């Protein structure tokens, strides 16, 4: 609950049109309407022989997902590409794809394990760092394939990509990335190979209408040929993207991903939360689900407000280690509203407390409350009022952190 001085009419609008953050257009920097990232896979020779010079002419920076052995054939060219500001991404060492491609059958994804994939991707980063002095933070799935093994033993390696990289890009997708919803580890990649500028322009115009992020993906950069993003198309695309009238932000995948990630910290997207590497479980308001008649996620405060007796917040949590956790809560409340009872529940575990004073609705405070003994496994953690108060609000809730007790 915030700013009680807001005129009644404003409140009325606020309540009658509960805006789901997900439905609001995404805010790109400097009033841009959309973002485009150009990306090229495999470290094809034509990328540094012809492609980067053209991009540099327009001051456009792209992402190149490299296979180290291919990159070695044009080491100087790739060093120059890095110096010009292009981004280097990871495209693995072996470029393993399904053995359904006959050429991939010697070392197919069907024969991979997650451990083998992990080792290979870490080794790819190490080799690229050695060669070019930069450590990739973005990855493109060879052949766009995200699982390994076969049949009942198939495993997705998306979680591994999510752990090791800021983003992962697939291939031959049908729609641009929705920045408010997308899984960073599965950014869609739309093909530029063999396309005319008119074909790409249709996709760009659609994406601009929806405020999306268009990650384009290709291979060779040359006048013509197989698996080739044509230079004439690329020239027109760069000119169009750089024309301020078109409202396009064109930047490498990693740069846009970092922007989207930061912006999404203020968007409410409920999702399953697991422990961090230190075992701590951080339940921020933007990953929780506000349920009830009045509760609202307030992006400007990164908190849930308008918390009446009938409202609650639920988080989906995945507890890996059963045991005692210390509860830390971050909240604000006007002193005249403080003191109402609340309860935090997860399965049979329960903590009951009273909302402490913070000074004002604008002053957030973080404090350790007590402990909760949690069972392992996926479950719901609920924060809700523990009394049927009829006036005012419970609190503004920004975060609950669960710190394992050693
Ligand atoms: Zn590839």
From TrEMBL:
Pfam families on file: Polysacc_deac_1
Domain NodB homology: start-end pairs: 34-251
CDD domains: CE4_GLA_like_6s
Name this protein carries in UniProt: Polysaccharide deacetylase family protein
Source species of the chain: Dyadobacter chenhuakuii
